[in-house]
Every structure is written in structure tokens, then in C-alpha cells.
Design a protein that fits this description.
This protein is mainly alpha-helical and 150 residues long. Helices cover 72% and strands 0% of the residues. It is built from 4 helices and no strands. The chain starts with a helix and ends with a helix.
């Protein structure tokens, strides 16, 4: 049947006895053939070379965000320190304000860490916590007064 191959005539699928050819395009060549192994290894290397730069890019973005967060933490600590040293806020309030302020700064749209804005933000948080503490004390005193009165 070599004359058919030379003329471009191919037999119908399944008509050749002992033929392993199927109608599925993925099964036309076997993976055990040397040419297929080198192609699959080349594909793997190509895919890993594509993945590696994207991992490097992701790592760089992560490090950049981490650096910004560290800068925000340092700036907030500088702004909040005087309030903590003068005992205007407690240790728990210090931690809450630090956490909230850093989160707010890092998620801001501008992406900048302006020391003046950070100081104003901290001042507002301190005033808010002082007010809540005062208000909480007034509520407790009012509650104690109601409970004691007959």
C-alpha cells in the first residue's frame, strides 16, 4: 500500500489491519516516541520560564507592600508615642489605634505616607478613644445610680 501513500491516498480509519490509529487527534503520536519527549520537556521549560518572571513580579509587589506597611507603622508609632507617654491612652488603646491607623494608611487610595496627615489621624483616634472612655464611665455611673436607688 506504499503506492497509496505516495499518491496521497490514505485508507479510512480502522480499515488497516493491526492499525493503532484512532480518530482522536491527541492519540496520533505516542508519548514514548523520542520526538514527543523532547517536545514535552521543551514545553515544560517554556512554561516554567513564563511562570518564573511572574513569581518574581509577585514577590517584588509583596515586598513593596511590606515596606510601605513598615514605614506606616514607624510613622504611626512616632505620632502616637507622646499620647502614650503622657498616659492619655492605655496600652490596649495604643495597640488598637496602631492597628487601625496602619490599616487605614496602607489601604488609602493615594498610597502616600504624609507625617502631617498621620499625626492628624492619630490625634482624632486619641480624642475618640478618650471620649468613648469618658462616655463609658458616665454610663457605668448612671447604671450604678439606677441599681442603688429604690
Amino acid at each position: 500500500r506504499s503506492s497509496d501513500l505516495m499518491q496521497g491516498n490514505l485508507p479510512l480509519l480502522g480499515s488497516v489491519a493491526g492499525s493503532a490509529v484512532t480518530s482522536e487527534p491527541g492519540n496520533l503520536a505516542m508519548a514514548s516516541e523520542p520526538g514527543m519527549q523532547s517536545a514535552s520537556i521543551g514545553d515544560f521549560e517554556e512554561k516554567t520560564s513564563i511562570i518564573k518572571p511572574s513569581l518574581d513580579r509577585i514577590t517584588q509587589e509583596y515586598l513593596k507592600k511590606l515596606h510601605i506597611q513598615e514605614r506606616a507603622v514607624e510613622e504611626v508609632k512616632l505620632a502616637i508615642k507622646p499620647y502614650y507617654q503622657t498616659r492619655e491612652i492605655t496600652k490596649d488603646e495604643y495597640k488598637d489605634i496602631l492597628r487601625k491607623a496602619v490599616s487605614k494608611i496602607c489601604h488609602s487610595k493615594s498610597g502616600e505616607i504624609n507625617p502631617v496627615k498621620v499625626a492628624n489621624l492619630i490625634k482624632a483616634y486619641v480624642e475618640r478613644y478618650k471620649h468613648l472612655r469618658r462616655h463609658k464611665r458616665e454610663i457605668e455611673e448612671f447604671h450604678d445610680f439606677i441599681v442603688e436607688s429604690p
